[in-house]
Write the structure tokens for this entry.
Amino acid sequence: MKKIVLATFFLCSAFFFSQKNMSYVRISYGSICCGTPSTKPVMDYLKKFEKSNQLKAFEILEQSGLGREGEFTLYIGTDKLGKKQKMTFRKGLQSVITLQNKNRKQDRDGTVDYDPEVTVYKSDLTGIKNLTIYKK
């Protein structure tokens, strides 16, 4: 009986604690006149990173309806990454987004905003409306 109670406790606590501290990076897509920029460069980077590090697919959440021209924000889960992988991931993501913003048409294309120092937690996302799972 004691073993059953201990096993149940460990399983429940593992599930409880694993759901509590989920962390995400935030990428915002803004518009200037003609819609938001493409998510293709970021999605390509994510797929490449997953493949090179032999990871399962990232959890990606989308907050839509942020403006008249389709502005939205993506939240990418980073809990499954180790400390070194997180640093590499954030640096690579920053370079992809910087390159995308650099190559845009200044008077027409929207911008992609990303701050590698900002971490959003699951508790921050609970009050957000229009939050759905992003379909690649």
